[in-house]
């Protein structure tokens, strides 16, 4: 992963960390057309139900909706088309092993720009059960209460 100052976030999958337990994050390039890049820079993408799949020895991003560029023409690509992910052969081989062996899923966490290139963060993740989600909400609420109490004590001093 790159330092935060080099990255400009373009789109994020906000529900990913709620619905999945993230085990590892991988940075990947993505093959896009020019109008898709312009549309992404406008922030017009949706990663809600998208996932990555490995077919043969290539990785693809599926179900990702990138809206057609507003100033584009009739040659705009299909918004839900299959997009190729740019990963090294060794990385793809390692991902194949983890997805098949451990039952993990590849989900996108977000698009970002690094200099003039568009990258995507992929997560190797395991789906959470309902009781796991409830437990996370309880933990977050308790942490928020503790922070409020400690802030209140600091204000009284």
Structure in words:
This protein is of the alpha+beta class and 157 residues long. The chain has a single domain, classed as Small protein B (Small Protein B, Chain: A, Beta Barrel). It is 34% helix and 36% strand. It has four helices and nine strands, in the order E-H-E-H-E-E-E-E-E-H-E-E-H. The chain has helices spanning 16-19, 34-41, 89-102, 130-156; strands spanning 7-12, 20-30, 45-46, 51-55, 58-62, 65-66, 83-86, 105-114, 117-127. The strands form two sheets. The protein has a seven-stranded antiparallel β-sheet with strand order 1-8-9-2-7-5-4. It is globular, with a radius of gyration of 19 Å. The mean pLDDT is 86.
